[in-house]
Design a protein that fits this description.
Blueprint lengths: L11 H15 L7 H8 L3 H7 L3 H17 L11 H18 L10 H12 L1 H28 L8 H19 L5 H19 L2
Helix pairs in contact: 1-2, 1-4, 5-9, 6-7, 7-8, 8-9
GO molecular function, one term: DNA binding
Keywords: DNA-binding, Transcription, Transcription regulation
Protein name: DNA-binding transcriptional regulator, AcrR family
């Protein structure tokens, strides 16, 4: 991972979570066994089971962290002065997160999507969190777009919400489309180009 420090710190509990997270990304939740995790940590079974007694428990804690770290977005620091400045801050945030979870050779890890899909099936509460996150993201984009329309920055027959969805769906669609084959730099460049294309169509 492109981080200077471990995702979860360094004690035994965090070692387990770090190790399991890496294995889940390299394979998948269903392919990784408890024995795989125990062996990869180098801990004894007794030490391991002191912290976690099932793979599901390990996975749930990883997903809770992963959701907050990569899918929860704090819009507080985003510029609201213009739609494009908001886009720039959004793209910067996406780039930081993509680089953090890319392989050391700069290729996206494909299994981050399968981890999310598995989590929504295993933990119903996670599905609810995802839905709420999506609602907040849509609200933030719609608000900025409404302000941009009011200021005369943009004009379009589309509604504010429809425009917001263009940016949101473009972002996630590009991620899924490119994740199986793209270098990180290529993915981020394509995302920026598409955002710019949408913005230019809207700009007065």
């Amino acid at each position: 991972m492109h981080t200077k420090r471990s995702v979860f710190m360094s004690d035994s509990r965090e070692l387990i979570l770090n190790t399991a997270f890496r294995l889940f990304l390299e394979k998948s939740y269903h392919e990784v066994t408890m024995q795989d995790i125990v062996k990869a940590t180098g801990l004894s079974k007794g030490a391991f089971y002191h912290y976690f007694n099932s793979k599901e428990m390990v996975f749930e804690e990883i997903i809770e962290w992963f959701f907050k770290d990569i899918y929860q977005i704090s819009f507080a620091g985003f510029s609201k002065n213009s739609l494009w400045e908001f886009c720039e801050d959004y793209l910067k945030m996406v780039a930081e997160r993509v680089y953090k979870y890319a392989n050391t050779d700069g290729v996206m890890r494909t299994n981050q999507y399968s981890l999310i899909f598995d989590a929504t099936k295993i933990f119903p509460q996670f599905r609810d969190k995802q839905k709420r996150r999506q609602e907040i993201e849509l609200q933030q984009w719609t608000s900025v777009i409404a302000k941009a329309r009011e200021s005369g920055e943009i004009a379009s027959p589309l509604s504010d919400e429809q425009i917001a969805k263009l940016f949101i769906y473009q972002n996630y669609g590009i991620g899924v489309y490119h994740v199986l084959r793209a270098q990180v730099d290529e993915l981020l460049s394509e995302r920026r180009n598409q955002f710019k294309a949408i913005y230019e169509l809207l700009k007065k």
